[in-house]
Amino acid sequence: MEHSSVLYIDYKNEMSAYYQSLLEKSIKHVHVVDNREDAYLYYKENNPDIVIIELTIPKALSFVKTIREKDRDTIFLALTEDTSISTLRSIVELSFSAYMIKPVEEEEIQSTLLKISNNLKYKKSVDLPLGCQWNIKSKVLFCQGSRIFLTPRESKLFELLVQKRDTFCSEDEIYCNVWSDEIDKTINTASIRTLVKNLRKKVPNGLILNRYGIGYKIIA
Fold it and tell me: What pTM was computed for the model?
């Protein structure tokens, strides 16, 4: 869970700060907001892996319903004082992964996060050789536990190589996928090779292979 991101929606007070500190023991990126509007803005801009929400926040369930109309993958957890039957029905309909009633002990939070961690990893990441991992959802690369910052075109190239890993990608394929926004322009072989060269400088040696006249691939 270390590299996952969490949007925590709750009233800002001592207890929310306490729960935030418990979450940060397992999750590096925890962002806290106290209203539906800020929550939706953060969700659109950052696409968090997990949303933890206090259901007594005004229009909390309406916020979740809006997300669920287009997104069935984001994991929702309720950390709430709301124990009503109608709310219980709603969290089932909206596919919450867990429902925790305040006050919640640290052991329960850690146990809940542990239960969802394997499912989260399956949905969002691909393990690669040489200690690398590609986050499918956020399109972020980690190598040896550290995030590797890629340019937009490097990210598109790496995503293509991951999708076709252990199969060579031709320069034509790379051009069509990486320069799809400039498909009417002439991109020469040198541009592609320079992009690959720059990407190789950022990843472990040997991760990206090439064969002259055939293309490039990530080893499986």
Answer: 0.60
